[in-house]
Amino acid sequence: MAIAKVTYDDRSFLVDGRRIWLVSGSVHYFRTPAELWRDRLLKAARAGLNCISTPVPWNFHEPSEGQWNLTDDAGVAEFVTTAADLGLYVILRPGPYIGADWDMGGLPSWLMAKSGVSLRGSNAAYSHYFDKYFRQVLTGLADLQVSRGGNIILIQNEHEYYMTTMPDRITYLEFVNQLFRRSGFDIPIISCNRFSPAVNQATELCGTEGTIFTATDATNPFQSWPMAVYTNKSYTVDTLPKVLKDYRWPQLFWVEDIIEDTVRNRWVPICPPRSPNNYERMMAHFLDCLINDTEPLTSGEDGARAVEVMCATLKSMETDAWVNLPLDEEIIPPHYEPLPGED
């Protein structure tokens, strides 16, 4: 079998020079009984996805030290091959820390009893144990990557890790990368880590009256979070404008609150109310529909519009040019073809 090579540029990922537009969603195999994996993955594929992202929780596969669980509901290799049968790529997230609202972010609790262990850093004791975890789990999965005829197209290093300029943290992430390569993975390594400066450096930024400083852990600008408002006037804490006084961070959060009471030509930290937000409104609406057995307000036109935007984006990438909406030509959605085994 010819060896495929996964590369990327500023437009997309490529497999042997062929552009791949990844439309990915998450399916966590460890939260779903194995007998339902195919059903869930088939639904994802029918929804238009061509890729599945899944974390690999260390504590699910090694709940007690040296006791490995890699079959049945913990059969991650079987999950990956099931996705392959349905024409789905897989993005693998082995951590060692995975987040995912999972206990200890996937780190096994028995680590806490080990002498000298400091989690999520280039600590020798910690590195020793997650090295053993990678050796046990990743070596077999490497045979399922795209470059070996499989469907694992990307592998992720850590998750939501605050990478500062501290050498220890850089060393840790580089060591994780080295273990991926040693395990046989030659596909691109991605991250979901936080490389931006700490928010408390906002006082070093320049601003004019009314400028709002925003920060985000995501690449989506619509998820930006207002953090501070710049003022070039002098106010005491008690005489701040109402908008700043009402939404200001608690006392003593900002170091200048400790030093002095007067706000002079600086950023005032704020925390705008998060509730109610669009997510809460959406959930309330769907719950109301369930309780009252009514149809949701979303319509087929909403879905069609989303597909149209996706197709326009793909066309723009292919032609490196603007594409007008509504579309004036038919564009077939990527990977729009009957699925294996689909009636």
> How much helix is in the residues?
25-40%
Cα separation of the termini: 30 Å
> Which consecutive residue ranges, at least 5 long each, have pLDDT under 50?
195-206, 216-224, 251-261
What is the CA-atom radius of gyration, in angstroms? 24 Å
Number of strands: 11
Counted up, domains total 2
SSE order, one letter for each helix or strand:
EEEEHEHHEHEHEEEHHEHH
CATH architecture of the largest domain: Alpha-Beta Barrel
Text of the CATH class of the largest domain = Alpha Beta
Structural class of the helices, strands and pairings?
A: alpha/beta
Overall pLDDT score: 78
Summarize the model shown:
With 343 residues, the chain is of the alpha/beta class. The chain is built from nine helices and eleven strands.
Description:
The chain is α/β, with parallel strands linked by helices and 343 residues long. It folds into two domains: 6-191, Glycosidases (TIM Barrel, Alpha-Beta Barrel), CATH 3.20.20; 199-269, no CATH class. The protein has helices at residues 37-46, 58-61, 76-85, 124-141, 167-182, 242-246, 255-259, 278-292, 300-319, and strands at residues 6-8, 13-15, 18-20, 24-26, 51-55, 89-93, 152-157, 189-191, 212-215, 225-236, 262-269. The strands form three sheets. A five-stranded parallel sheet has the order 4-5-6-7-8, with helices on one face. The protein is globular. Residues 195-206, 216-224 and 251-261 have low confidence and may be disordered.
